[in-house]
Amino acid sequence: MSATMKKIDVDVHNALKSPRDIYPYFPQPWKSQGAGLPTSGYPSPIDFKRENSIPPSGGPAASDADYIVQHLIEPNDIEFAIMTGHYFDVSALVDPDHAAAIASAYNDYMANDWLPKHASFRGTIVVATQDPFQAVREIDRMAERSSMAAVVLSTAQPGLLGQRRFHPIYEAAARHGLPIAIHPGADGGGGTYPPTPSGYPTHFMEYHLRTSQSFLGHMISLVCEGVPEKFPNLKFAMLGGGVSWVPHLLWRLDKNYKALRSTVPWLKRFPSEYIRDHFLFSANPLEEAYDPQNMLDLFNMIDAENVLLYSSDYPNRDDGTATNLLNRLSPEARKKIVYDNAKKLYRL
């Protein structure tokens, strides 16, 4: 894909040099409790970060805004970069008040100390879903900042995201015209449920491969609990979970809806119609088929040019498959995926 094609990158994982970066925005008693987040308990045996993503000044990968501009934004002609960061896992904490304080401090840090560093940077509002009322207050507080483009949630949650306790969060996002971005997180960590429907896997490889299961569970919940019907203007961006599972979900939901629609009487259309109208998916990382044509066939099944979003997943090193496949699409389809779809979704 030509680097000169203007792009919107919907998934850039900027990092803090230290959790203490957000301490100036912490009230007591939370400052003394720190800003650590739960982990999945499955440490990776390999480093997924690009070797050249470490700033020359030192610190974690993607922790230097100027270096991100030099290394990612300018060489790839990225007009807007949506910063998803790492703090979306705050919803896995057990203490709802501590979690809400971390989310608020992080959002203030992003809005005041990070996003102003480059015109391309846009933020995502982190909320702690344990207490939806505090989450709504945080969305209302941050949504009027023009630098904030979405609300971001982790797949690591205290419940399935379609459940009614989360609906006030969706109402607030819809009221402000903000999409909901959902990203794989530390499922199984903190106060969340096991990372698979059958329990805890043994190895990191098993854990890493279960990402699509988390997306399946949350999307089925969102659709069957009637979130798209209740909030017709709300959109969801499913980031970092691949797309090969999407046709299976569309087909199976519609098949079962024919016989079981009486159990979800609030749905007025086939589930697949809600998904096509309300959900978009990042084009990176993608699955790798032995035959690239299989992936192109998959793209046809999901109407890729209208539902895919360009993402680098920076600083992770897994964008080769997406780039190679997008190069095989028509210029019109590529433009939709790398720019138009995100511009409309995030109202940039």
UniProtKB/TrEMBL annotation:
Entry's SUPFAM superfamilies? Metallo-dependent hydrolases (SSF51556)
Entry annotated with the keyword Lyase: yes
Molecular function via GO: carboxy-lyase activity; hydrolase activity
Q: Give every Amidohydrolase-related domain span.
A: 55-348
What is the protein name for this chain?
Answer: Amidohydrolase
One Pfam family this chain carries? Amidohydro_2
UniProt keyword terms in alphabetical order: Hydrolase, Lyase
**Biological process GO annotation list?**
secondary metabolic process
Q: Which Gene3D superfamilies match?
A: Metal-dependent hydrolases
Transmembrane region positions? none
